[in-house]
Amino acid sequence: MTYQDRNNVVSIIVSLIVNGYIILRLLEMNAAGQFEGPDAVNVWARMVIWVIPIAIAATIVGTILFNILYTIVTGTQKHSFLVDERDKMFDRRGIAAVVIFAGAGFILAILALALGWSALVGFNIIYFAMALGSMAADIVKFISYRRGY
């Protein structure tokens, strides 16, 4: 497993855990009636805003720990951090996945608002479209590295 593969796997796992937590937390908060009233979007934003830096930190810590454990278990030598054209091409594929999901999510949110759904639904659509886009980017890069092209 290459260094990029390990980083993508950790990122996918962290994304699944964080977004699973957010879904559970949103369901709990909705069941408790915390999204009732005019400040529903503010409550949602206060819940989501702290998750982003925690997800970033978890990805960084997870990547470091996973790479250390992988090196200990397999006994592999240090890897090269050189970036070539292939790496750049795989990154562009990942960025394309993010743009597609984020763009589609934005359009779906606007459509939902135009059809009379609440702003809270619109924000959830945008958030989860971006989260799925990020995960799709990691999956696309992982598959690209595994195929080699």
Please provide a brief summary of the model:
The protein is mainly α.
**Could you say which overall geometry the principal axes of the C-alpha atoms support?**
elongated
Total beta strands: 0
H/E series, N to C? Answer: HHHHH
Give the proportion of residues in helices.
Answer: over 70%
Q: First CA to last CA: what distance?
A: 16 Å
Would you tell me the structural class of the helices and strands? Answer: mainly alpha
List low-confidence stretches.
Answer: none
Work out the radius of gyration.
18 Å
Main β-sheet: number of strands, strand sense, barrel status? Answer: none
Put simply, the count of helices is 5
Beta-strand portion reads under 5%
Q: Give average pLDDT, whole number.
A: 92
Count of structural domains: 1
What can you tell me about this protein's structure?
By secondary structure, the protein is mainly alpha-helical. It has one domain. Helices cover 82% and strands 0% of the residues. It is built from 5 helices and no strands. The chain has helices at 3-31, 40-49, 51-74, 85-114, 119-147. Helix 1 runs antiparallel to helix 3, helix 1 runs antiparallel to helix 5 and helix 4 (85-114) packs antiparallel against helix 5. The longest helix is centred in the C-terminal third of the chain and has 30 residues, at 85-114. The radius of gyration is 18 Å and the shape is elongated.
